[in-house]
Amino acid sequence: MLTGLQPAVVLVNALDLIGTFVFAISGAALGVQRRMDLFGVLVLAFVTAVSGGILRDVLIGALPPASVASWHNLALALVAGLLVFQFHPLLGRLRHPVQFFDAAGLGVFAVAGTQKALAHGINWPMAAVLGMISGIGGGMARDVLTAEVPTVLVANIYALAALAGAMAVVAGYQFGWPPTPAALAGVALCVFLRLMALYRGWKLPVAGPKGG
Amino acid sequence: MLTGLQPAVVLVNALDLIGTFVFAISGAALGVQRRMDLFGVLVLAFVTAVSGGILRDVLIGALPPASVASWHNLALALVAGLLVFQFHPLLGRLRHPVQFFDAAGLGVFAVAGTQKALAHGINWPMAAVLGMISGIGGGMARDVLTAEVPTVLVANIYALAALAGAMAVVAGYQFGWPPTPAALAGVALCVFLRLMALYRGWKLPVAGPKGG
Amino acid sequence: MLTGLQPAVVLVNALDLIGTFVFAISGAALGVQRRMDLFGVLVLAFVTAVSGGILRDVLIGALPPASVASWHNLALALVAGLLVFQFHPLLGRLRHPVQFFDAAGLGVFAVAGTQKALAHGINWPMAAVLGMISGIGGGMARDVLTAEVPTVLVANIYALAALAGAMAVVAGYQFGWPPTPAALAGVALCVFLRLMALYRGWKLPVAGPKGG
């Protein structure tokens, strides 16, 4: 019975690893840009990759968090950080793929976070919020540690894309859809919105006089 | 037997809702001022309203935190954020009422946080600290997310007012006073100290040469 | 049987108190430097002294954290903060002893944090990370609250010294060494690396063109 799900589970796990890896890259890249030493770069890679999931797990009481109970995400983040430290000049050329994988990681984390929150009995509005937090928490921790205004709060449709992905999972849960298509739809929705914001300039209104 | 307490419980609950609402307004107002988009404003409203209580609940091990286990505070914060986004020019004119409600929210959160910590068996000095954290945590999270020095650390008698309110609850607990008058005294003490700081310039000493 | 350990336990407890005290001093000193009032200084002293241990305890699910379950660390941090507030001009003259005790505190917290994480069944790579977090968390919280880039991410061999101390404990655990010599070796290793960084300029490589 589970055999039918296996390809999808493999897919989600693969995307989860990709998400961890890409977020670690984004943290390490900021560390290199700020001229941190190797160790600071690795710390920032790890923090960016796992903070979202850790915050979610603390808030639903799933302690110790998954990224603490296992060392896999640590290993993956260290590999990503070492690669960035060594080959960072390449990152400029890889901007488009990195942005795509970042959007994919955002969607995967948001979807997986929502599923985990629902599985722990959290009400659906807060489950969607926790899914969003899973997606954006790593970037927020990265920005707070480097004393920047978190980009999730100023970037065009970043947190909102994560929330949209989370809402797809919640809708599927409410209406009894099979979980795998709902999860894939959530990831796709998040990636779509994020890429539209990046390449078509979609954005939300800002309050106040337009002149700024 | 509980009937006698009911008016007081209703009062405390009403004040708790007011506190959540007012703190959400203060977060949303900062978001508008920083020209964040609608979504960033709503996130900041929610974070400001619930971070203090969430931090307290994590630290006493009451997981998931009350603001995660229920969606009511989320809804209230979103309404407050939408109102600020739409009607923010009014906020300048409402400065005095907002400051009063902010002081009231601070006191209510400090008192309720202390009561919850004591009920979870925390020793009284740390229960008072946790009450203070409940009151000031939202403002601290708001300031950290927007890369400001938390005003609770520099404002005249802000955290101290929260601590004073918390200490009133602790004193009542130690000396066996009935909880409701102790709670109301704590809120009143916090509001009084905060308003004295705002309108009479009460403040604590600063170390070092006066010339600065 | 435990009698043989008693001197070592007393030593570790004494070092733990020294670590709390010294970290509180470093937080209070930054508060004075930023011209915070007495209360802000005390808050910063407490936050710096206990945040690392609290973060560790939350992440391993040991709730409420030790610094919440008891009021001893609070009292110690307040005493340290009051002393700094009163006698801060002395701090400049005491720079070398303070740096030494800070390194000792870092090592003690890293070692004790690793031991606690291992005792809670955490895998050894993450136990070492949690030990490091116990050591550096207080300084990170201090810097985030004052809107600085955390020095642990830019200072020469600070977090790395903590991690080295933690790894000594992990090595002892893996190879079945008696815990007390492993702990003392960890503290000594951390102090040695930190002092080499401070007085001999040991540092890690930075990525990118040397010209900066």
Automatic annotation (TrEMBL), chains A, B, C:
PANTHER family, per database record = INNER MEMBRANE PROTEIN, UPF0126 INNER MEMBRANE PROTEIN YADS-RELATED
Residue spans crossing the bilayer: 12-32, 39-63, 69-88, 124-141, 153-176, 182-202
Q: What is this protein called?
A: Trimeric intracellular cation channel family protein
Q: Which residues form the Glycine transporter domain?
A: 14-88, 100-172
Q: Which protein family is named in the record?
A: Belongs to the UPF0126 family.
Where primarily located? membrane
Q: Which GO terms describe its cellular component?
A: plasma membrane
Q: Which UniProt keywords apply?
A: Cell membrane, Membrane, Transmembrane, Transmembrane helix
Q: Which domain of life is it from?
A: Bacteria
Which compartments does it reside in? Cell membrane
Membrane-protein topology: Multi-pass membrane protein
Native organism is: Teichococcus wenyumeiae
